[in-house]
Write a structure and sequence with these properties.
There is one protein chain. The protein folds into 3 domains: 143 residues, Beta-Lactamase (2-Layer Sandwich); 70 residues; 141 residues, 2-Layer Sandwich (Heat Shock Protein 90), CATH 3.30.565. Strand 4 and strand 5 form a beta hairpin. With 413 residues, the protein is an alpha+beta fold. The chain has 8 helices and 12 strands.
């Protein structure tokens, strides 16, 4: 799935869900706040009703407003209260915030309930009248603190932000995880399809190569026999030409064999052996060629590494790498190093030659690609096949003008 499609498929629905959740939570909080304010209004009206009955009884008993308010000083939820006469003149009042009684001409015009902001937060106000038996009218002004409601709404907002943050984090984490899983799946799918195409290509190439090899080798065998006869009956002075012809036939035969072997699956014949044995064998077999080119071969082997592997194939791998290093070097030194870390063994071949270009490095292990004019591009491909058959890895480190290093890592040791 492309990145743009992924954004459309996952992030836009996630964003939509978060917007809906945010809107729903806001509406829900508004609904709860409205319901609570309605309950507070009803409670305040009930409280006002009870107070008016008590005030009426005490006023009949000729209690002064100061004495009346003193009896209700323990009402903590009542932030302030005031008693007014029929002319709306204050007879007495009490407030938990001394000196604060938010009465105005506007608020005394009609009997109603309303909310105001105060130093102690929001206050629910009630202004209503009551009368005594003698028809004398009084007014009761109450202020009910909404501190608990505000605290509850603040806690609700904090909980909402916490839940919203958790949902966003989980959504992003889930989306990123799903995206990575999707990318991993698509990469594996591409690798599988590429591997499938590669196998089909090599099956086709193998069939073609086998057919071509069969068709070519029969005439080659006849030519080889013909040159043998010529070497016995040819006139004097033609020996060099006949030897050259025989060498070309052998070269063609070797090329056909290499192509055929590159397309066959690697079959391992594992045995236990010392890794330094094959290092010594390869060093000895290429010492003369190195001397001719003026190149030194230096070995640094970790002692007593015992491998369970195909000795012949690993010798072929090391031989190919060292031979390539010699061909790439003009003087200088080729280093062969072996090492061990936990349960993995490393083998590296380093030269001080001209190095590779980025393009050559990228295609180094491709079949039939070679940076050498006379190369066929099979050697490194076979090396990689053999290493991978041992469940190992090989990679190349190269820089133009500074040489090349091939590093092999295989399990065991």
């Amino acid at each position: 799935m492309k990145r743009q499609n992924y954004l459309l498929f996952f992030y836009i629905p996630l964003l939509g869900f978060m917007i809906i959740f945010f809107a729903f939570s806001s509406l829900n909080r508004s609904y709860i706040k409205g319901k609570v304010e309605k309950l507070v209004d009803e409670q305040l009206q009930a409280t006002a009703g009870i107070l008016k009955v008590n005030f009426s009884h005490l006023l009949k008993e000729n209690y002064t407003p100061e004495h009346i308010f003193a009896q209700f000083s323990a009402e903590e939820d009542i932030y302030y209260m005031a008693l007014l006469d029929e002319n709306k003149q204050i007879l007495g009042w009490r407030s938990q915030f001394e000196g604060y009684l938010p009465l105005s001409e506007e608020s005394l015009k009609t009997e109603r309930t309303w909310i105001i902001d105060s130093p102690a937060g929001k206050i629910f106000n009630s202004f209503s009248s009551f009368s005594l038996a003698n028809s004398r009218v009084y007014y009761l002004y109450l202020g009910y603190s909404l501190a608990e409601l505000e605290e509850m709404m603040l806690r609700s907002r904090k909980n909402f932000h916490l839940i919203f943050g958790i949902i966003v984090a989980v959504g992003i984490f889930f989306s990123v995880g799903l995206y990575r899983l999707q990318v991993h799946y698509l990469n594996k799918k591409r690798e599988w399809e590429e591997e499938k195409r590669e196998k089909q290509r090599y099956r086709d190439m193998s069939a073609l190569t086998s057919g071509v090899a069969h068709e070519i080798k029969n005439p080659l065998n006849s030519l080889a026999l013909l040159f043998e006869l010529l070497s016995k009956k040819a006139p004097s002075g033609t020996e060099e030409d006949i030897a050259s012809g025989k060498e070309q036939i052998r070269r063609i035969s070797r090329i056909i064999d290499q192509f055929s072997s590159s397309l066959r699956p690697v079959e391992l014949r594992k045995e236990k052996f010392l890794l330094e044995d094959i290092v010594s064998d390869v060093h000895a077999s290429l010492a003369r060629e190195a001397t001719k080119k003026g190149v030194q071969i230096q070995c640094a082997s970790y002692p007593d590494i015992v491998l369970l592997a195909d000795k012949g194939l690993l010798r072929q791998v090391l031989h190919n790498l060292v031979k390539n290093a010699l061909e790439a070097s003009d003087g200088g030194t080729v280093f062969i190093r072996t090492g061990r870390e936990k349960k993995r063994v490393s083998i590296s071949v380093q030269d001080t030659g001209k190095g590779m270009t980025k393009g050559e490095k990228k295609r180094a292990f491709e079949p039939f690609f070679s940076g050498k004019k006379s190369g066929m591009g099979i050697g490194l491909y076979l090396v990689q096949k053999i290493v991978q058959a041992h469940e190992g890895q090989i990679h190349c480190v190269s820089e133009e003008g500074k040489g090349t290093t091939f590093i092999i890592e295989i399990p065991g040791g």
